[in-house]
Structure to design on (142 residues):
């Protein structure tokens, strides 16, 4: 019998890490998550990325069961879990931050020709996102 929840979690973890450049296959990911067996010839960093994403996903599920409200602090906790073993300290002219601790970035981010919100706007944008999501959840529970 197929465990659809497990299948979905494994798939989300694999796709999320693939976007970040992880070299593990979907099968490698499943074997690592379920049996803690690493894929021969693949970088340790990629295995750590998978394990961190999986741990973060399990943490989110646990918090959801407890009906924890979304908050900037909660998002930072999740970020710290996702980047626990692959993030690190970054120095910029605008300040220093540590992604492995869940710090918000202090640098402009872009991919190809797409720019993302200015780092100074991120805390307020996250606050509004949390408020929006929490309001929608509250309405759906009535």
């Amino acid at each position: 019998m197929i465990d659809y929840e497990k299948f979905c979690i494994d798939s989300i973890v694999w796709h999320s890490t693939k976007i970040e450049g992880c070299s593990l296959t979907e099968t490698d990911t499943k074997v690592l998550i379920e049996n803690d067996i690493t894929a021969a010839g693949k970088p340790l960093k990629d295995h750590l990325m998978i394990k961190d994403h999986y741990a973060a996903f399990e943490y989110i599920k646990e918090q959801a069961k407890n009906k924890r409200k979304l908050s900037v602090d909660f998002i930072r906790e999740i970020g710290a879990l996702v980047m626990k073993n692959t993030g690190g300290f970054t120095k910029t002219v605008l300040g220093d931050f540590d992604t492995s601790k869940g710090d918000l970035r202090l640098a402009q981010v872009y991919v190809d020709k797409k720019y993302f919100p200015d780092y100074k706007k991120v805390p307020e944008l996250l606050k509004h996102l949390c408020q929006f999501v929490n309001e929608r959840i509250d309405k759906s529970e009535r």
In short: Residues 1-68 form one domain. Helices lie at 4-19, 26-35, 44-65, 72-82, 122-140.
